[in-house]
Design goal:
There is one protein chain. This protein is an alpha+beta fold. It has three domains: 2-115, Alpha-Beta Plaits (2-Layer Sandwich); 153-248, Chitinase A, domain 3; 264-450, Orthogonal Bundle (Trigger factor, domain 2), CATH 1.10.3120.10. Helices cover 44% and strands 20% of the residues. Strand 1 (2-8) and strand 2 form a beta hairpin.
């Protein structure tokens, strides 16, 4: 066996694998021995007919498919291993037979989707928006109410408009350009105003309505909405408000928090809440800032992403969604039926998001490699010691109990932290709503490659 490789279109490599006549005959014989039990020939017990008899009875190509599969499985992955420094396969190959002649063996092909080359014009010296979130006293009070939420009473409000915090029961029907869309209609739907459950503007427009009132509200779907066909579209929702209820909470006392939260006082409990909320706000700001950085860099990035990488990311998104449904006791097929859609349409909703995720990961990989960011052993050990202390174990005890994947995760986390520390230090980061971000010069390839990246600025 020998092979050649050639760069193909759309981030693919074509492998042309040539097998001698002897290798091909050996593969045919192995296919015969493996599958002969499936065939019956008059005059022979099942599985006992000689190879020539089966080929004469069922046709000379009866074992070809099995032989092809055997040759691929035996040699394809070893070729990938040999070529790992030249390319990385990111999906299943498209297999084919280039030629097959008597006495000359067989030539097989495999068109392999590979990790694409990434070109970044620049990733430093940019003006990029960063995000920071503050925790207010109102946030703390709202979080504190959750402790007594299970004992809250709901009381129907009759003679007043609804306000933020109320639970309203509504009928609604949404349309875009006069046409109703999937998932946009419901009756007797309970919505907590201010929860952010609906698209921006929807809940605010409901505030002020009274029981029995009907209203048409105009909203616009976000540009990053999960359904491609609704992104950025103006919509009209016809709403009828059926009922308004409000929650009445019991008083939060020192005795209550001692019994239910393990804190000595309401003040101590709220202090812990603030610390937790501040940590969460810091994490949210960091995540959104990192997204903003990658969105900015994507505008200067040229890359041809193979379909296999996008489809693979959609697989992960759908799997995660399916797991979350399972926790709620819902099967994926039941959900699709309820939503009036099918898996193909459901998957298509995530194409843009999957493309963005793949693009961001490729950018990260490229910069990490160029800057040679690494997790040093002492840095990994320090993180392990930190985690061990949090569970009151020694670093040695904790490390022995760790899965290798946990250590790999810690290493990757250190590398990513170094990456974004570097990018924040070498770009002009700004707060505020003004659009100060630097705009790239017009460039067809850059525009084409980055057109699906989510603009988080």
């Amino acid at each position: 066996m020998n092979y050649t490789q050639a760069t193909g279109e759309k981030s693919t490599v074509k492998l042309t694998i040539t097998f001698t006549e002897e290798e091909w005959k050996s593969a045919i014989n192995k296919a015969y021995l493996k599958t002969r039990g499936k065939y019956t020939v008059p005059g022979f017990r099942k599985g006992k007919a000689p190879q020539p008899v089966l080929e004469n009875y069922y046709g000379k190509g009866v074992f070809f498919e099995e032989a092809f599969n055997a040759l691929y499985s035996e040699h394809y992955y070893s070729i990938l291993e040999k070529e790992k420094d030249n390319f990385t396969a990111v999906g299943e190959p498209e297999l084919g037979v280039e030629s097959m002649e008597e006495g000359k063996g067989v030539v097989l092909t495999a068109v392999v989707p590979v990790k694409p080359e990434v070109k970044i014009e620049k990733y430093t010296g940019l003006k990029i928006k960063k995000f920071e979130y503050n925790v207010t006293d109102e946030d703390v009070e709202k979080e504190a109410k959750k402790l007594v939420a299970s004992e809250a009473k709901t009381v129907e409000a009759e003679d007043r408009p609804c306000k933020t915090g109320d639970i309203v029961n509504i009928d609604f029907s949404g349309s875009v350009d006069g046409e109703k869309f999937s998932g946009g209609t419901a009756e007797d739907y309970d919505l907590e105003l201010g929860s952010g459950s609906f698209i921006p503007g929807f809940e605010d427009a409901v505030v002020g309505m009274k029981k029995g009132e009907s209203r048409d509200i105009n909203v616009t779907f976000p540009e990053n909405y999960q359904a491609d066909n609704l992104r950025g579209k103006a919509a009209v929702f016809a709403i009828k408000l059926n009922k308004i209820t409000e929650r009445q909470y019991p008083e939060l006392t020192d005795e209550y928090v001692k019994a239910h939260a393990g804190s000595e006082s309401v003040e101590a409990y709220k202090k812990k809440l603030r610390e937790r909320l501040e940590k969460s706000a810091e994490s949210r700001g960091r995540d959104e800032t990192e997204g903003s950085i990658l969105a900015a860099i994507s505008k200067y990035t040229e890359v041809e992403i193979p379909t296999a990488m996008v489809e693979g990311e959609i697989d992960r998104i759908v799997q995660d969604f399916s797991y979350r449904l399972m926790y709620q006791g819902i099967k994926m097929d039941e959900y699709l039926k309820y939503m009036g859609t099918d898996m193909k349409t459901f998957r298509s909703q995530y194409e843009t998001e999957a493309h963005r995720r793949v693009l961001c990961q490729l950018i990260v990989d490229k910069i990490v490699k160029e800057q040679n960011f690494k997790a040093e052993p002492e840095e990994v050990d320090a993180k392990i010691a930190e985690q061990a202390a949090s569970v009151e174990k020694t670093a040695e005890e904790y490390k022995k109990s760790m899965d290798p994947r946990q250590i790999e995760y810690i290493s990757n986390d250190i590398i990513i932290t170094k990456l974004f520390d570097y990018l924040q230090a070498n770009n002009e980061m700004y707060l505020g709503e003004d659009d100060k971000a630097e705009k790239p010069k017009a460039k067809k390839t850059a525009k084409k490659s980055a057109q699906k990246a989510e603009d988080a600025e």
